[in-house]
Amino acid sequence: MLDPDRYQKIVFLTGAGVSVASGIPPFRGPGGFWNDQEIERCATAEALARDPELVWRAFAPLREAARQARPNAAHRTMAELESRHPGVHLLTQNVDGLHLAAGSRQVVELHGNIHRTRCTRCDAPAFPDQSLDFRACPECGGALRFDIVLFHEMLDPEALKRTAQALRGVDLFVAVGTSGTVYPAAGFAASAQADGAWSVLVNLEPAPGGWYDQQVVGRAEEVLPGLFKHPESL
After folding, report:
1. pLDDT in the model for residue 104
2. Strand-pair category, 214-217 with 112-119
3. Ordered strands of the 198-203 beta sheet
């Protein structure tokens, strides 16, 4: 059990394992989104350039799943901890928007948000969107796309800047629902450790030795609510 009052700055890094209990499929493993090789082939910048409608159709089911999903106990635990601890920050690799739906506010969505749409051609800002229909940009007529990061695309520089700011001075780093051992996420854990932060992993599978000071194997929605002191307030 961790006492949040011992730490000035707490940073969570979350991955697909946080949202499985909400009905969002993981990207790999049993029931994984990438198990369909056709979808994986569509998840690249090159595929988007060749056939944006095909890429839209490939990811539309993920928007539909995210639209129907609700935050689970793991999302709520992090949001409620933030509400009573001013030093809580959240970095997520997920695109489902469930952290925001749970009430977290200091969130960096590293891979974008499936509930937003933007143009493949012009610089019109991304906008909230729940439509599943492929269509043209009302500004320039270019193809629209989901506002998520595909393979071979760069992460948003602003998101990386906010990530660096969040990690500065962290003294408790908690990775949840992700191994956090693949870059750039691995760099976040390494950065936190270099600053002397206590690092914790909550995941279904342990990570290789040396990555974390403490590892708790289990489902995020079951482990996280009991990991911090004062569970009655969560």
Report:
1. 98
2. unpaired
3. 107-109, 88-92, 10-14, 172-176, 198-203, 214-217
Give the pLDDT mean for 44-48: 95
pLDDT value of residue 233: 44
In the three-class reduction of DSSP (H, G, I as helix; E, B as strand; rest coil), residue 92 is classed as strand
**Options 3.40.50.10840, 2.30.300.10, 3.30.1600.10, 3.10.110.10; CATH of 25-68+117-148:** 3.30.1600.10
Rounded CA separation 56/38 (Å): 13
Please count the residues of the chain.
234
Please name the residues in contact with 117: beta carbons below 8 A apart, sequence gap of 6 or more: 126, 127, 129, 131, 144, 145, 146, 147
111 part of the active site: yes
Q: Are 177 and 19 in contact (CB under 8 A)?
A: yes
* Catalytic hit among 111, 115, 152, 230: 111
Q: Which CATH number fits domain 1-23+71-111+155-234: 3.40.190.170, 3.40.50.1220, 1.20.1730.10, 3.40.1500.10?
A: 3.40.50.1220
> What tens digit of pLDDT does each residue of 167-222 get?
999 999 999 999 776 777 778 888 898 889 999 999 998 887 777 899 999 999 99
Which of 104, 83, 87 lies closest to 8, judged by CA? 87
Residue 234 has pLDDT above 70, yes or no: no
| Listed residue (14, 18, 173) closest to 107, CA to CA | 14
